[in-house]
């Protein structure tokens, strides 16, 4: 229900942003691109960013749910096995979300003419970051409110009224509390991670345009994407290199 509401709001906001950019912000156009062209490109980028951000949150939540059960089962065998499952269960959504962010920015950059007009395309994909931030904002707020409400409800019923320990399986409200942990800490955090990396990449690419205007070397614009890709690879190597003793 939350993602359905966010989806409809994203479409409305994308149209509004596209109109505002086309009518107010893009009054003079950019090297052959009309004000209307700037507007609809920004709107499409906004929707693409919102969609990818929502998918990132969904990925984080689904993998977390599956990893939770596997980690609990592994803890019955050994600490080493449980830590390995928990570590890699957390690493997988992190890698997928950062890779999706990198892929999304790269695809929309070249789709908007990055190969032919590298100095213009980064300005046209700013809407991608706005869309990602829009979904992440509501995912964090909605998930956080639900998480805290469920947590307080479970504590009030369990500790104060029934006098049973925290997270006791006899308390039915604990289920809502655990669901809230997944919704707020996993889904919201996944969308937040996506929008953070997307905004960083786009912002750094726009800064690279300044050096590109002086040197004419497009590598300065693509440099943030390359660095992010190498960082992703290095993180994967680091995760696989972790060994638990005992």
Automatic annotation (TrEMBL):
UniProt GO cellular component terms: endomembrane system; membrane
Entry protein name: Inorganic diphosphatase
Keywords associated with the record: Ion transport, Magnesium, Membrane, Translocase, Transmembrane, Transmembrane helix, Transport
Keyword Ligase set for record: no
Organism: marine sediment metagenome
Ranges that cross the membrane: 7-26, 38-65, 85-112, 124-146, 198-215, 221-242
Subcellular location: Endomembrane system
Protein's membrane topology: Multi-pass membrane protein
GO molecular function: diphosphate hydrolysis-driven proton transmembrane transporter activity; inorganic diphosphate phosphatase activity
Any one Pfam family match given in the protein's UniProt record, by short name: H_PPase
Tagged with keyword rRNA-binding: no
Signal peptide range in chain numbering: none
